Amino acid sequence: MKKKVLALLTMAAVAAGATGAVQAAEELEDCKLTFLSWYPEEKYQPILDAFAKEYPGIEIEFQYAAPVADYLEKMQVLTSTGEVPDIFYIAAENKTEMIENGYCADISGTEAVSKLVDANKSTYEADGKYYGFAPTTWVGGYFYNKDIFSELNLEAPATWEEFVNVCKVLQENDTRPIIERGEWFWDSFLGPFMNDYLAGDMDYHKEVLEGSKTFADGWGPYIQKWYEDLIVPGYVGEDLVSVSSQEFFSEFATGHAGLLAGHAGHLLEVQKLEPEFEIGFFPMPGTEADVKVVYGAVDCAVAISSSTEHQKEAEAFLNFIARDDMVQLYQDMNGYVIGMEGIESDVDPILEDVARRYSNGEIGVYIPQGNWDAYGTGLQQQLIASSQELLLGDIDCDTFIQNMQDKLAELKDE
Amino acid sequence: MLNSRFFKKFAPFMIGAFVLYTALLIVPILLSFAYSFTNWDGYSRNADFVGLKNYMKIFRSAPMLAALKNSFIFCFFNVLVITPLAVALSLVFNANFKARNFVRSAFFFTSVPSVLIIGYIFQLFFGPTENGVLNALLGKIGVDPIRWLSAGILPMVSVIAANVWRLTGWHACIYLARLQGISEEYYEAAKIDGASRWNVFRYITLPLLAPAVTISTMLIIIDGLKIYALPYSFTGGGPGYKTTFMTQLIIKTGIGEKKVGRSSAMAVVFFVIIMVVSLIQLYFSRKREDEIC
Amino acid sequence: MLKKGRWKGIVLQALLIAVTLVFLSPVIYMVLNSLKPYSQMLRSPWALPEGLFLDNYRKAFHQMQFWTSLGNSVVITVASVFLIVVLGVMAAYPLSRFKNKLTGFLSVYFLVGYMVPTQVLIVQIFSVMKIFHLINTKTGLVLVYSASVSFAIFMYQGFIRALPIDMEESALIDGANPWQLFWQVVFPLIKPATATIIIFQTMWIWNDFTLSSLFLSSRDQLTLLLELNLCIGEFNLDWSVMLSIMCIVMLPMVIFYLLMQKQIIAGMTNGAVKG
């Protein structure tokens, strides 16, 4: 029902917007815009088609590199040679360099940016100016196998204690408690950290980068807790370090694992495998039952090159994506939550609740590497390597924390 | 040698290769020397001179030392495993039997697909869960899943295994080529002397295969030091740094962490090591050639 | 007695074929499962496909830009191999026929490239390419590949040295044109080396991922292998489709291999004896 009303509203908005767009189109020059995308062409096609219809004079030359590593690599190569595309994506991992080194045009004045909610706006802000248009946010946590849960008389846990107990029961019944990929399994420590600590100090990572706090201050106790509660009993199994994305999905879909850590994008993939059970969702829990921060992040943002010869046309592309009907297409593409005022997201019913709470500003989102500025990639690589070593018992918790701190020092040094 | 007065006429023949090679190989090598004394990040439009700082840092960096060690272990064990397997296989290739062509083609075939594809396939094979191909098979005979890509030295063993799988057939063909060049007379003479099969192999075949061993070893080492796409698609360099090799670390540091200066220093160190290894190789192969001639 | 020997031979051969099949199992797995729906691949990976299931291939062709990328792969490989052969053989001739300081130096100079992994020079190569505006062009990538002439030069040197020199010498003394002498007399004599180089370089360039992935970005420039890499990632997890894409990407090389098999083995001989 809600969706229908929304569709009607959207249509009205399109009708109203269309005349405006036609007027604007007359002022634009015919040109070719190069666009390096974060999403593959098949997924972008509906938006590109609509754009081509509306602006026949502007041709989009579509390029794509797979996120995250390949994309960053390509972007770095392009910037170092001055071949920056007219339109491209910036992400948590490279936004700081891209903005600080002047590769991104200031788009504060565009209609697109003005439509965003604060969280989505400020993620790509520097010195009061906006450099990226990020229309969506992903929120995540644990998807669970409802059939297994009801069979074992389990309920979605609301606190860490309950969560650990769920893991225990699953393991006792020969089900792998948590499945996660080798580069990401560390995310299972986030629940208590986000809700018990970070919620009270959202600037924690900024302070770590500035040097007034350390990894030991915030992360330290929670890594220890994670180690004792989940790793030692084997709920986070040693074999997770080498789980590929293929097994990540198949293990859950074939009922071998009770919980899968992920977001809407992962849910889409799991559903493609047509699992024969119902899927539920709960956010990563803290010690207390009320969730304040969830696993998630504002998605990557569309930015315009500061050296483009077609800024106006590129802005037209941004504003086009920001149109109410287009942003719905954009949302269909990734399944995330739209961060634009007054627009409901058509997320999967499983995630409806958490999406609504985010849109209402009741909960924040967190992933570590989104807060590490220029050191994002380096620290993330360290996090992956050290967490794997910790899980395999090659290092202890203190060394893990020390490695993170050392890496930061090393990266900052130059 | 031709009379040197003709040299002028032929010298221009070398210009094309020289220009291209210099511009796209030698200049970049020199650039990495130059970058290695700076803190350039690959993004900014300027960089500072930092002297030897990058070099001092990398020799204290655990990942660098791990990657160096891994690259050596990888090369060493590839040589150690591939060489006897390939020699044995070449004897099979050389024997006279009906299915010979099929067996030859099949074993050589593994060097045909791109390493990228091989990495992805092996990732499926060595998956740690019950859905991993090997573990699923083991499960059928009641063996618990093996943590191929995480337990102890198994990750490195698995990567080496993948490379051995890829290269053994190829190298067997190098030996086969050599075997086919061995004159029948040796064997006939041995037959007359009543030598045992083992002795024929030990005292005739093996020494004659020696030059091929040198070449095969050299190829394995050079290929091993360059390895990149295999761990990229197979293990991603993990867990920890267990299967991170020099090439991957250099690219990670330079492009991922944006430390072009430091990654250039690593590259320089790596070049030097490769040079030394190659020169030693070259010295031995020259020496062997001299011995034979 | 004879009969016993024959039986032994048959058993041995059967054993050998079994070993070979086990050895090939990753390839068999790949082809087998590319012909099944993903759900069946998960359930019974080693079972034969239930009937002719080509849906994966249909999806694969739909997802990939097969003809464009195949064309790119062919153009890039052919052009690079052509340049490597021409530039390599031309440089190798004076290097192996004259002994002076310059040729002595250049012989070593060209050897350096055989040892240095190009992958670690990516950022630096880019700086050079930028000057010539060669980024995201096939020409640029072809030049990067062609710069690796070391192997060709090395190989040709061995072959040219093994040729008798008298005829070239007398022809030159009689005033023959060096260009014609080289291409009409010398070049045909070292055909085996050319064949070997063509085969080895084709296999390397066709299968290269690292360099091509960084030097090409627009969809219409991508090679087959890059198309494959586009399809793998967080957004696509239907591995049976992925396997069929891998099979498609591998196929041209397999055809090349089957056609050239004899020459490849002969090439190994050349490589092993002369290289």
Detailed description of the structure:
The complex is a heterotrimer of chains A (about 425), B (about 290) and C (about 280). By secondary structure, chain A is α/β, with parallel strands linked by helices. Chain A contains 18 helices and 13 strands. In chain A, strands 6, 7, 8, 9, 10, 12 and 13 form a 7-stranded mixed sheet that branches. In chain A, strands 2-1-3-11 form a 4-stranded mixed sheet. In chain A, strands 4-5 form a two-stranded antiparallel sheet. In chain A, about 55% of the residues are buried. Chain B has a domain of about 170 residues: MetI-like fold. Chain B starts with 6 loop residues before the first helix and ends with a helix. Chain B contains 13 helices and no strands. Chain C has 15 helices and no strands. The model of chain C has no long low-confidence stretch (mean pLDDT about 85). At the B-C interface, helix 1, helix 2, helix 5, helix 6 and helix 8 of B face helix 1, helix 2, helix 5, helix 6 and helix 7 of C.
Alpha carbon gap, first and last residue of chain C: 46 Å
CATH topology label of the domain at 73-245 in chain B: MetI-like fold
- Strand proportion of chain B, as a percent range, falls in under 5%
Whole-number mean pLDDT of chain C: 85
Under the CATH scheme, the architecture of chain C is Orthogonal Bundle
Mean pLDDT of chain B: 87
Number of strand segments of chain C:
0
Q: Which sequence of SSEs, written as H and E, runs from N to C of chain C?
A: HHHHHHHHHHHHHHH
Spans of chain B with pLDDT under 50 lasting ≥5 residues?
Answer: none
Structural shape of chain B: flat
Beta strands of chain B, count: 0
Helices and strands in order:
The complex is a heterotrimer of chains A (414), B (293) and C (275).
Chain A: H1 2-27, E1 31-37, H2 41-54, E2 58-64, H3 69-80, E3 87-90, H4 95-100, H5 111-114, H6 118-122, E4 125-126, E5 129-130, E6 136-145, H7 146-151, H8 160-172, E7 176-179, H9 190-197, H10 204-210, H11 215-231, H12 245-253, E8 257-263, H13 264-272, E9 279-282, E10 293-298, E11 301-304, H14 311-322, H15 324-334, E12 337-338, H16 352-359, E13 364-366, H17 376-391, H18 397-412
Parallel strand pairs in A: 1-2, 1-3, 7-8, 10-13
Antiparallel strand pairs in A: 3-11, 4-5, 6-8, 6-9, 6-10, 6-12
Helix pairs in contact in A: 2-15, 11-18, 12-13, 17-18
Chain B: H1 7-10, H2 15-35, H3 53-58, H4 62-94, H5 100-109, H6 115-125, H7 133-140, H8 154-180, H9 184-193, H10 197-226, H11 229-234, H12 246-256, H13 260-292
Helix pairs in contact in B: 2-13, 4-8, 4-10, 5-8, 8-10, 10-13, 12-13
Chain C: H1 2-23, H2 25-33, H3 38-43, H4 55-63, H5 66-97, H6 101-115, H7 122-131, H8 138-146, H9 150-162, H10 166-173, H11 178-189, H12 191-207, H13 210-215, H14 224-231, H15 239-274
